[in-house]
Write a structure and sequence with these properties.
This protein is an alpha/beta fold. The protein has one domain (2-243): Rossmann fold (3-Layer(aba) Sandwich). It has eight helices and eleven strands. The chain has helices at residues 25-31, 52-72, 85-96, 146-157, 171-182, 195-204, 211-218, 231-243, and strands spanning 2-7, 13-18, 40-45, 76-79, 103-108, 112-113, 125-126, 133-137, 162-167, 186-191, 222-226. Strand 9, helix 5 (171-182) and strand 10 (186-191) form a beta-alpha-beta unit. The protein starts with a strand and ends with a helix.
Length: 245
C-alpha cells in the first residue's frame, strides 16, 4: 500500500493511497484520514459525454442540492475523481461552497493522470483538483473502479446510511448502479438528466422493456426525482433516502 500527496496547480494538496487488494481498503481509508460511520453519497453518471451545455444545465443540482445536503448531514461523497462531467460539477460545488466534508475520488490507476507526470496512454483523464482525498485501485479500463466505489462506501458507512445518486451516465454508470444494488444500497435516479438515468427512470415508470434496467428496478432499491422539479426536490428526496435504515 503506497501513499502520497497529490499537489495541484491550484495550490490544493490531497492525500492519496494506492490499494491492490480489498483487504487493504479499510486501512487505506484510515491512513488518508477519512472518518468512518458517516452518511455516504456515491455519485455516478456522465463524464466526458457531458458537453458545456449539459454542465450548465446540471450545475444547479450540485450547487443547490447535492453539495448542500452533503454538508448539512456531514456526509462523505465518493465518485470517480476525474475532472469531467458529474465529478467536475461536484468538485466545483464543494469548493464554491467552502465545504470541508470528505470528497473522495476512487479511480483505476491506469485511467488517470497525476499532475506533472508523463503519460503514455491517450485514454486517461486528469484528476479533479477540488477532491479532498483519492484512492487509486487496480485497473486500466474505465469501469474497473465500479466495484471499488461500492466497497469504499461499504467500508466508510458502517452503521450509517448511504445512497447512490445517478446523473446521466453510460455503460459504466449502469455498472456502478448494479454494484450499488448488489450491495443493498438505494439509488436515487435524477430523471431528465439523460442516457442511463432516463433509461432507468423509464423502467421505473414501466415504460421500458429493457430487461437489464427492469432488473435494477425490481430490486426495490431504485427511486427517482425529476430534474424539472428543481434542486429543492432533489435535496428533499436525497435527504429522505439518507434517512432510511
Amino acid at each position: 500500500m503506497q501513499t502520497s500527496t497529490i499537489q495541484f496547480t491550484n495550490g490544493r494538496h490531497s492525500p492519496a493511497v494506492w490499494v491492490n487488494h480489498s483487504e487493504q481498503l479499510r486501512a487505506a481509508i484510515r491512513t488518508i484520514g477519512v472518518p468512518f460511520a458517516r452518511p455516504t453519497i456515491v455519485l455516478v453518471g456522465g463524464a466526458a459525454g457531458l458537453d458545456a451545455a449539459d454542465l450548465a444545465r446540471l450545475r444547479p443540482v450540485f450547487r443547490e442540492a447535492l453539495a448542500p445536503v452533503s454538508a448539512a448531514l456531514q456526509a462523505t461523497v465518493i465518485d470517480g475523481g476525474t475532472d469531467a462531467g458529474v465529478m467536475r460539477l461536484m468538485g466545483e460545488a464543494h469548493s464554491e461552497l467552502g465545504l470541508t466534508t470528505p470528497l473522495i475520488g476512487v479511480a483505476a490507476e491506469g485511467t488517470i493522470e497525476l499532475p506533472g507526470a508523463v503519460h503514455e496512454h491517450a485514454d486517461t483523464a486528469q484528476l479533479e483538483p477540488h477532491h479532498t482525498h483519492f484512492i487509486f485501485v487496480p485497473g486500466h479500463n474505465w469501469g474497473d473502479e465500479s466495484l471499488w466505489l461500492a466497497r469504499t462506501a461499504q467500508e466508510l458507512g458502517e452503521s450509517a446510511t448511504s445512497t447512490t445518486v445517478l446523473v446521466d451516465g453510460g455503460d459504466v454508470a449502469r455498472e456502478d448502479v448494479k454494484q450499488s444494488v448488489n450491495a443493498g444500497r438505494g439509488v436515487l435516479v435524477i430523471a431528465g438528466t439523460g442516457r442511463t438515468a432516463d433509461d432507468v427512470a423509464a423502467a421505473f415508470r414501466n415504460r421500458a422493456s429493457d430487461s437489464e434496467n427492469q432488473v435494477l428496478v425490481d430490486s426495490g432499491l431504485i427511486d427517482i426525482v425529476e430534474l424539472a422539479h428543481g434542486p429543492a426536490a432533489v435535496a428533499t428526496k436525497l435527504r429522505a433516502m439518507l434517512a432510511r435504515r
